[in-house]
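Q: Protein A?
A:
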Amino acid sequence: MSFKINISGKRKVFANLLAELHEELYDIYQKRNEETGLTKADIAERLEVHRSLITKKFGGTSNLTLESVAYLAWALDCKPRVELIPLEDLNNNRKTYTEYYLSGSKEDKITRTTSTSSTTTFFNTVNLKRA
C-alpha cells in the first residue's frame, strides 16, 4: 500500500521560506559565535528567555513569528529585512512562482535569478544585516 500526500504550492513556498529563515538565523549565530564567542546562553540572557527556547528557534523545532525573528535579530546585533520580488521579475524565466521556487538547488536559484533580474537575488528573501 502506498500513500500520496498532496501539499499545495503555497504551503511548499511557506515551508521553504521558513527553512531559509532558520538557516539564515543559525548561520548568523555561528558567525557571531566564531567572531565574538557569543553563545546561545548569551542570547537567551539578552532576551530574558530560557536557553532551550533559543536552541529550538535555531534548530527549526519552534515556530518563528515576525516578533521572534525581530528579537533574535536584535540579540544577534542584526537588522532583519524582508524583500518581496514581483512575479513579473520571476517570469523572465518563464516559470510560475511555485515552479521557480521549488526547482533546482540553492546555487541554481541564485545563478538563475542573478542573471535574469536587476533586483537582489530572489533566494535571499530574508537577509539579516549587522545593525
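Q: Protein B?
A:
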Amino acid sequence: MGRMKDIQLKEVYKNTDFGNLASKYSALVDGNVKWVKFKYGLILIFIILTLYSAFFDAFNLPLSNKKHTYNAFWLIPILISLIVVHILAIILHVIVALSTLVDAGIDKQVCKKKLFKEGLVQIKEQWERSGTNKIKRFLNVVKFVINKILKCLITPSYFLKIVKYLITPDYFWAEYYKRKIGSIITDAPLITPYYVEYIRLAKKFYIERCNWSNIIITIIIAIICFVSFSKEPLLYGWVPFSAFTFILYRTISRVMEILIAFYYDIVKQREKIFYFFEDEDNFKTINQDVVNDIASNQNIKTIIKNKSFTYFNPWNNTLLLPASRTSLALHSLLEVIIIFSVLYFLLFALYHYFPSYMFRPSIEKGNLGVMKFILYSFSVAVTLPDLKLNSYWSVLVAFQVLGSLVLIIMSLAHYLGRGYEMQKHEKEIYASKKLKDFTDN
C-alpha cells in the first residue's frame, strides 16, 4: 500500500481544466426549463380540479359501478397493475436518463444504444431464432427478459437487490440508471478529476428530473383517479380495486425509496480515494459505476498498488447543493401528500370489500369532494397526529407519518447546512450560467 497524502481537494484538482463542464451545466439548466413548466402546469391543473370538486358536482367517467363481489378473475388485473408499477418505473428512468445524458453532451444515438437499443436488439434476435410458433416465441422472449433481470439482481449482494426490486422498483431502477449514466459518460475503470465532476454534474440533474417526473406521474394518476371515481360514494368492481392495488404498491415503492435514500444520505457516509500517478502528474480514482467489486478486480488492484493516495470522507456523489436537496425533499413531501390522498380516497370507497376490523376509515363524510382527502393527507403529513390503533387504516397513516417525518427532517437538515462551502471548481461551474445570463441580456 502506498503512502497517504494529507492534502485538500483543490490540490487534487489543480491540474484539471473544468471549463468545458461550465457549458454542459448551462445546457442542462436550459434543459430543465421544459420539465419545470410541465411540472408547475400540472400542479396548477390539479389545484383547479380540486377546488372545483369542493364547490361543484364531483367528476364522473362512464365506468360501470355495479355491486360486483370479489372473485378469482380479479387476480389477473391486480397482477397486471403490480407489473405496471415496474414498467412505469423503468420507462420513467430511461426517459430521464436519456434526456440528462443528451443535455450533458453525449450523442443521442449512443445514449439510445447504451440505454435500451442493445436490449431491444437482443430481444428481436431471441424472437427470430425461436421458430415460427408465436406462443413459443413469446415464452422464449419472456424467459430471456426474466434472465436479464435476474442477471441484474444476482450479484454479491443479490438478496438485498431482490428485496429492493420487489418492494421498491423505483429505487432499484434509480440506482441502476445512475450507474448507467456514469458508465456511459466514460467506461474507463480509472478516471481523472474531470470525469469525476462530469459524472457528479450529470447525476445532479438526473436526480432532480427523477424527482420532478415522479411528481408529474403522481399528479396525473391522482387526476385520473379523482375524475374517474369521485362521483360515487362507494366503488365496486375490479377496475377501482385494481387501481387501488396499483396505488398501494406505488405508494409503498415511493415511500421505501425515500426511506432508503434517507439512510444513505444521512446515516451512511460516502468516501472517495484519489491515487496519484506520477508519470501523468495527475490524480485518478476508481470509476465505481464501471468497477462494481474492487476487491475481486485484480487488474485494478495491481495498478493502484503502491500508489500514494488521498482520502476524503464525507464525499458527495453529485453536485447537489443543500438548497437543491431541500427542494427535492419538499417536492417529495408534496408527492407523498398527493399519492396518500388518492390511496385514502380509494380505500374509503372500497372499504366494504374488507372486514370492518381491518379498515375503518377515519375520515368523516362531508361535502368537500376530493379536497377532504387531500386535506386529511396534508394534516397527517404536517401535524403528525396521534395514531388510533383500531384498524389497519392506522398502518397507512403511520407509514405516511414515517415518510413525511423523514422528508421534514431532511429539509431542515439541508436548510441548516445551507452554509456549505463550495469548492473553487464548483463555483466556476455554477457561476458560468449566471454570467452567461447576464451577458446574453
